[in-house]
Amino acid sequence: MSDQTESTVREIALVTTGGTIEMTAGSRGLVIADGINHNLLDGDVIPANVRVTQIQFSSIPSPHMTPGIMRELCLRLEELASGGKYDGIVVTHGTDTLEESAFLADIYLKKQIPVVFTAAMRSHAEMGVDGPRNLRGALLVAANPEVHKLGVTVVLGDEIHAAGRVTKTYTSNVSSFASPGYGPLGFVDQDRILLQRMPLWRLLLPPGELSMNSNVGLVRIASGFGAREIRFSADCEDKGLVVEAFGRGNVPVDVAAAVEYAVDKGTVVCISSRCFIGRVLGVYDYSGGGIDLEQKGAIFAGDMQGHKLRLLLMACVGMKMNRREISELLKEL
After folding, report:
1. Cα 268 to Cα 253: distance, rounded to the nearest angstrom
2. Do the beta carbons of residue 294 and residue 318 sit within 8 Å?
3. CA angle 126, 127, 129 (to 5 degrees)
4. Which residues neighbour 250 within 8 Å (Cβ) at sequence distance 6 or greater?
5. Domain residue spans of the chain
6. Contacts of 269 (CB under 8 A, 6+ apart)
């Protein structure tokens, strides 16, 4: 449990990127307006002893947020964190890709100030808007000097989540963001921050400017599906590929052969699971089982979600890490 000292004014950079939290009603549905949305800070959003500088990074719906734009966002956050002007940073973001942007920032940022992502499931044009409360909670968290120890965090619904764990679980519910199987790191309770635990793991990229290689694929395995897509990825000369396998990290026989084909062509193949909770591990010794995939050269990635693993692999390849270095990094999971 911790609180900020009442007499200390905390300087917070509010970096806006777009998303539902900035949307209004249009003629056919919700739309995002150009320019800085000053409505974000209406009312009692800013806590006492917090001074906010609003910085517009972009004004886009989150499905338009590409890995390239995420990279530029991370570089901007690093610049702000390194400047010495701010005690913390809050990023407002659309919910569809928030967890990916937050995760990329988490594995890249090195500076020791809090960086907090937040969002809204409902716009200002809808009944029961949640954005102002989420933003206030995020500002309180970013103003807390202990929060940097947690890495990048995500704050919605009065809960504080680790960027590596959090995911959007519901298409429309305001309680959508959760860390299945692991739970929040803490809570926002009125004007207090109640920290409960540290993140279970946090990966960090090696030193150097963030670079992303776009030639990294993602294939989700289903019954009778996946082998063709893996071979296609390899034939396109993708440098990396994430395979979301069944359960502990097992696949059909033809998918296993396709994985071997991709590895032989020089693709770094990483295995994650379709399951929400639990690690992939070489347990089953049959064709397509985890042991077989490891023998074929695939790298197992613990309990990391496939879409986040893809971003990590894009960064690893982009920053010229080789297969052995990537494997060593993922052993920490």
Report:
1. 19
2. no
3. 75
4. 284, 288, 289, 290, 293
5. 10-195, 216-330
6. 230, 240, 241, 243, 259, 262, 263, 297, 298, 299
Class of domain 10-195: alpha beta
All residues at 6 or more sequence positions from 83 whose CB lies less than 8 Å from its CB, including other chains: none
**Which numeric CATH code is attached to 216-330?**
3.40.50.40
- pLDDT at residue 38, rounded to an integer: 62
Identify the burial level of 48 via C-beta atoms within 10 angstroms of its C-beta, where 0-12 means exposed, 13-18 middle and 19 or more buried.
exposed
Q: Which residues contact 14 (CB under 8 A, 6 or more apart)?
A: 40, 41, 52, 53, 54, 55, 89, 90, 92, 139
Quote the Cα angle for 333-259-236, to 5°. 105
Radius of gyration of the chain (CA): 21
**Residue 200's closest CA among 303, 313, 74, 325?**
303
* Structure token pair of residue 88: 């913390």
Asked whether the CA dihedral 126, 128, 132, 137 is positive or negative, the reply is: negative
**3-class DSSP state for residue 292?**
helix
Please, what is the average pLDDT of the chain?
94
Nearest to 94 by CA among 71, 72, 65: 65
Q: pLDDT of 174-231, one tens digit each?
A: 999 999 989 999 999 999 999 999 987 789 999 999 999 999 999 999 999 999 999 9
Q: How far apart are CA 102 and CA 98, in angstroms?
A: 6
Q: What are phi and psi of 273, to 5 degrees?
A: -115, 150
Sign of the alpha-carbon dihedral angle for 86, 136, 193, 202: negative
Hey, what are 319's tokens? 């920053």
If you count them, how many residues does the chain have?
333
Closest CA to 77 of 88, 66, 68, 67: 88
d(CA 300, CA 190): 42
Catalytic residues: 20
Query: Does the fold of domain 216-330 match that of domain 10-195?
Result: yes
